[in-house]
């Protein structure tokens, strides 16, 4: 599914346009300050089956969770890029026990900043990272558990 920007609310629907069907799901904003947000959209060249719809919606939920994990952590006012590689590195740094640990973050203006964290600060950072990931995953699981695909029935 792709993000379609300009939305102001959630617009879950399956809309037929000509011979195509457009599946819309969810709503999000790239930041709290964003005036408008986005919906996920997928174009089918045929009338999709309920299984095809479900597959696309679940993919959108997974994509949103992954993006939130990667781009949604703020630590001490700095944005942290939590790629899988960075998550692995941070976990490895903790097991190595060498301090201070240097991590690259982004300030409010989008500038790269390097933080030098003591053992206590890094431990707090790791806990923050773990809680953030757990929260994102739990939100994704809850969304999947409460998924109502009846809005797409035609």
Strand content: 25-35%
The low-pLDDT segments are none
Mass-distribution shape: elongated
Q: Largest sheet, order of strands side by side?
A: 1-4-3-2
Roughly how much helix do the residues carry, as a percent range?
A: 40-55%
Class of secondary structure makeup: alpha+beta
Roughly how many Å apart are the termini?
20 Å
| Sheet with most strands | 4 strands, antiparallel
Count of DSSP helices?
3
Tell me the total number of β-strands.
8
Tally the structural domains.
1
Order of helices and strands: EEEEHEEHEEH
Average pLDDT works out at: 93
Using only CA atoms, what is the Rg? 19 Å
Fold and architecture overview:
The protein has 154 residues and is of the alpha+beta class. It has one domain (2-152). The protein is 40% helix and 30% strand. It is built from 3 helices and 8 strands; from the N terminus they run ββββαββαββα. It has helices at 50-71, 84-96, 119-145; strands at residues 2-7, 13-17, 20-28, 37-44, 73-75, 78-80, 101-106, 112-117. It has a 4-stranded antiparallel β-sheet, covered by helices on one side. A hairpin with a 2-residue loop joins strand 5 (73-75) and strand 6. The protein starts with a strand and ends in a 9-residue tail after the last helix. The mean pLDDT is 93.
């Amino acid at each position: 599914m792709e993000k379609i920007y300009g939305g102001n609310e959630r617009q879950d629907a399956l809309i037929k346009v000509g011979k195509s069907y457009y599946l819309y799901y969810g709503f999000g904003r790239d930041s709290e300050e964003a005036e408008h947000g986005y919906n996920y959209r997928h174009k089918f060249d045929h009338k999709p089956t309920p299984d095809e719809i479900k597959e696309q919606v679940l993919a959108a939920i997974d994509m949103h969770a992954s993006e939130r994990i990667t781009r949604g952590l703020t630590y001490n006012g700095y944005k942290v890029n939590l790629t899988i590689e960075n998550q692995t590195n941070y976990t490895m740094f903790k097991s190595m026990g060498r301090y201070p640990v240097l991590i690259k973050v982004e300030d409010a203006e989008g500038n790269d900043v390097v933080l030098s964290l003591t053992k206590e600060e890094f431990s707090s950072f790791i806990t923050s990272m773990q809680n953030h990931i757990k929260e994102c995953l739990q939100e994704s699981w809850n969304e999947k558990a409460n998924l109502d695909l009846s809005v797409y029935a035609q």
